Amino acid sequence: MIFGLATEGITDQAVLENILYGVYKSKVGDDIEDEIAFLQPAFDETTRKQEGYGSWTGLIAYLGDSRFREDVINNNFVIIQIDTDVVESLDDSLSRFDDQGNVLNTHDLIDLVQKYLISEIDNGKEGFYSQNSSRIIFCLTVDSIECWLIAHHHKESKHKCRTQNCEEHLVKTIKRFDILRNGQFIKNYDCYNTLSKDFRKIKNIQSAVLHNESLKAFLEKLPDDLS
């Protein structure tokens, strides 16, 4: 596969799948959908449900496992996604706040979490990440992937840049603008696929980027050459 997705959950995979389609359709065509593998957690296309253990704890366990190393070798690129709202849970030494109690800016927060993930990948031994860094892409969503959806769906610019409590505010945005057309918000693959389907058009991604720095940071890491 060109891309393997290692994420907190299948809802994140739905969003990333649509973004990758929007970014690469002009280069690869519709076949890009056949070049995306759901590595962690696994997803059953028949039941449309998650297989195995999801969540951030499942992701961290996966990064330290031999399965991750095999997946990196067997895919052109592996995208690792995690929401930064779990940063304090990852390790007691990590914090979203600086010494003065101010929230870290997006780039410093991404850098903090990325360094932690690299340490989990190397599992106490330096080498694997540095040898395979060109094939590992970090997607650190500040502070959750729902912030990316708000950047697209909310109609008011002052709310599009939100980076805190985004799941709660996404639900409010959906209701306010009837985004699901009287449908119910459910945290599953199909719902998030519907919410992110507009990202299959590059113009909608480019518009959302103007309001979300972590989305911009992720897009800047995506390769031009897919070989």
Structure keywords:
12 helices; 227 residues; 12% strand; alpha/beta; two-stranded antiparallel ribbon; 4-stranded parallel β-sheet
What does the average pLDDT come to? 93
SSE run = EHEEEHHEHHHEHHHHHH
Strand order of the largest sheet: 2-1-5-6
* N-C termini distance: 10 Å
Low-pLDDT segments: none
Q: What's the shape?
A: globular
Largest sheet: 4 strands, parallel
Q: How many E-type strands?
A: 6
Secondary-structure-derived class: alpha/beta
Strands, helices and their partners?
Blueprint: E1 3-6, H1 10-28, E2 36-40, E3 42-44, E4 49-51, H2 55-63, H3 66-74, E5 77-83, H4 87-90, H5 106-122, H6 128-132, E6 136-141, H7 146-153, H8 157-160, H9 166-177, H10 189-196, H11 202-209, H12 213-221
Helix pairs in contact: 1-10, 7-9, 7-11
Describe, in plain words, how this protein is organized in 3D.
This protein has 227 residues and is of the alpha/beta class. The strands form 2 sheets. It has a 4-stranded parallel sheet with strand order 2-1-5-6, sandwiched between helices. Strands 3-4 form a two-stranded antiparallel sheet. Strand 3 and strand 4 form a beta hairpin. Helix 7 crosses helix 11. The radius of gyration is 17 Å and the shape is globular.
Briefly, what is this?
With 227 residues, this protein is of the alpha/beta class. The chain has helices spanning 10-28, 55-63, 66-74, 87-90, 106-122, 128-132, 146-153, 157-160, 166-177, 189-196, 202-209, 213-221; strands at 3-6, 36-40, 42-44, 49-51, 77-83, 136-141.
